[in-house]
Amino acid sequence: MAQVCTRKGCGKKFDRGDSTECWYHPSPPVFHDALKGWSCCDKRVISFDDFLSIPGCTKGVHTTEVEASASAPAKPVAAAAPSHVDENGKEIYGAAPSVAKDLTSVSAPEAVKPTQKTLDDTKTVNTSELQDPEGAEIPLGTKCKRNGCEVTYDGSNRDGCAFHPGSAIFHDASKGWSCCKRRVLEFDEFLKIAGCQAGKHLYLGPKEEKSDAIEEVSCRTDFYQTPTTVIVSIFAKKCEEAKSTIEFHDERLTLDLFHQGSKRFKTELQLFGPIIPEKSKYKIMGTKVELTLAKGNGLSWSGLRAGEAGAGMIRFGVSGRTGTIGGKEIIYRDQS
């Protein structure tokens, strides 16, 4: 019969004599402000679900032994107090008299109340309204996704889920759920807090609907030039080269770029001057597409598109201090 490993961070089912590797956390969990993690690891997360998903850092074998919690240290026995003389001159052995305390002034400790910041930082997905799709095939052994439920699917158990619709709360040393009043100190005890709401198990969750709609967008375009080329940058992130097309023509440029999954930039540019298509090229980068256009006549472009004159004077210096390279004289295209 399959058993469940009791090591922290594992929780997998295993059979007797199973030599499958067990990855677990040998040290206790750490909760500081909104951060959660294990004292044996450096990783810290905010979401409680992400905390439960932190993989173990130590390799071992599965076990069903429950780790004993650290017992409270024994209260030290007070040493015998020295003798003293009272106001009547008698010598008395034992503890010296102490000043009486006003016990009524000592108030009982208040119950720990989570702050609003703690509630905001520990929000998890509310699964109370979610349901598995009708007729969905659930693989055997799939664990219920609802908070506080540890049941796995055995082929028929879809009902009888006891879970927490709220979010986990960790405030100072107190641990609990926002939907329940119970608070505990030990993390192991927190995991054992029974769910307060009943419903069906959630093994798969709702089916994600992928949208195939393509969004037509425009992309920022910039350029600079040398005496023989014009370098154009089109800022389209994560462009898909297999789906995109770039065509060079004598005096125009055709672009159809698919990027960021569902965005499309399609345009045709009438260029300021002629180019040599067979010598022009492009390069797709992570954040942009870079085109290198080979000039057809070596003249300076005052803009990228035909008729543009917003770029002003383009200097081709020889000292390297004016921001351009190459030519020794300035050649302008006749705009008349």
Protein architecture, described:
It contains 3 helices and 22 strands. It starts with a strand and ends in a 42-residue tail after the last strand. With 336 residues, it is mostly beta strands. The strands form 8 sheets. It has a 4-stranded mixed sheet with strand order 15-20-19-18, with no helix packed on it. Strands 16-17-22-21 form a 4-stranded antiparallel sheet, with no helix packed on it. The chain has a 3-stranded antiparallel sheet with strand order 4-5-6. The chain folds into 3 domains: 59 residues, btk motif of tyrosine-protein kinase itk (Irregular); 83 residues, btk motif of tyrosine-protein kinase itk (Irregular); 122 residues, Immunoglobulin-like (Sandwich), CATH 2.60.40.
